[in-house]
């Protein structure tokens, strides 16, 4: 969940397909709740809830869950799919909930996409009761066997001028600066095998590659597609097309 109107529109458009495209969120949402180990009846605030990957796991643990997201489309789907949830549309940096009203705050793959993560973590701290905990997941950037694709994108679309992705050490530092104590983390891995080059093209296309290629001059777009399929066929022949997604799961507490 980000604070920009552009991002809200993006997630509105993805609401129906979000967990199909981002295949790892359901599994890692369960793992994040397992790490936090809430007790039945705990009051949980899930920030940037999306389609409910973390919120569902907290409900299954017997918690009373409030889910918030900045995307109205996500909120509508979330409320329709999970009527036992309390759903609110609001921004991570301006949570519309009272001080000290939750035992656990969760945020799955949220902090790294925020314009002001420090502000959001301060809000997480504010809404937690003394001794409450925060559990957040962070995408771990890996290239692995998709190095050929990263190089192809660099040559055709540029790159390398944006902000560097947040690291696990930086997130732990932000948690400490926000007043949380004893931050701890664990690694997580969620690979997915695709059945061939065409499936990789479709998966990436749904996330914006198709639009980016369509914006290229026609001859350039044709060369990109040819090089893409050549690279994907080699990858498929040399061990299969596997998306290697990694994350770190972070847990910290407010002073008791």
CATH class wording of the domain at 5-142 and 163-191 and 244-253: Alpha Beta
| Protein structure class | alpha/beta
What Rg is obtained from the alpha carbons, in whole angstroms?
19 Å
The CATH architecture assignment of the domain at 5-142 and 163-191 and 244-253 turns out to be: 3-Layer(aba) Sandwich
Strand and helix order? HHHEHEHEEHEHHEHHHE
**CATH level-four homologous superfamily name of the domain at 5-142 and 163-191 and 244-253:** Vaccinia Virus protein VP39
> CA-to-CA gap between the ends?
29 Å
The strand count comes to 7
Global geometry? elongated
Low-confidence stretches: none
GO molecular function: S-adenosylmethionine-dependent methyltransferase activity
InterPro entries: Methyltransf_11, SAM-dependent_MTases_sf
GO biological process, one term: methylation
Protein name: SAM-dependent methyltransferase
Explain what this protein looks like in three dimensions.
The chain has 256 residues and is α/β, with parallel strands linked by helices. It has a domain at 5-142 and 163-191 and 244-253: Vaccinia Virus protein VP39 (Rossmann fold), CATH 3.40.50. Helices cover 44% and strands 24% of the residues. It contains eleven helices and seven strands. The protein has helices spanning 5-14, 18-21, 25-36, 53-60, 72-81, 117-127, 147-157, 168-177, 197-206, 209-214, 218-237, and strands at 43-47, 64-69, 86-89, 102-108, 128-140, 181-194, 241-253. It has a seven-stranded mixed sheet. It is elongated, with a radius of gyration of 19 Å. It starts with a helix and ends with a strand. Residues 45-135 form the Methyltransferase type domain. This is SAM-dependent methyltransferase.
């Amino acid at each position: 969940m980000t604070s920009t109107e552009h991002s809200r529109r993006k997630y509105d458009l993805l609401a129906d397909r979000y967990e199909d495209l981002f295949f790892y969120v359901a599994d890692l949402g369960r793992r994040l709740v397992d790490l936090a180990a809430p007790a039945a009846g705990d009051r949980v605030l899930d920030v940037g809830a999306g389609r409910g990957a973390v919120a569902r796991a907290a409900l299954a643990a017997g918690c009373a869950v409030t889910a918030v997201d900045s995307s109205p489309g996500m909120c509508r789907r979330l409320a329709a799919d999970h009527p036992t949830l309390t759903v609110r549309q609001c921004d991570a940096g301006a949570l519309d909930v009272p001080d000290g009203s939750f035992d656990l705050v969760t945020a799955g793959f949220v902090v790294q996409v925020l314009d002001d993560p420090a502000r959001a973590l301060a809000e997480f701290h504010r809404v937690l009761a003394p001794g409450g905990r925060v559990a957040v997941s962070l995408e771990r950037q890996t290239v692995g066997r998709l190095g050929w694709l990263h190089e192809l994108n660099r040559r055709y679309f540029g790159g390398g001028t944006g902000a560097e992705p947040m690291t696990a050490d930086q997130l732990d530092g932000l948690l400490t600066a926000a007043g949380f104590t004893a931050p701890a983390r664990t690694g997580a891995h969620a690979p997915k095998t695709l059945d061939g080059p065409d499936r990789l093209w479709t998966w990436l296309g749904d996330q914006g590659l198709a639009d980016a290629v369509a914006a290229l001059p026609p001859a350039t777009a044709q060369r990109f597609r040819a090089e893409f399929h050549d690279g994907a066929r080699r990858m498929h022949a040399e061990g299969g097309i596997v998306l290697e997604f990694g994350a770190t799961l972070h847990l910290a507490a407010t002073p008791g």
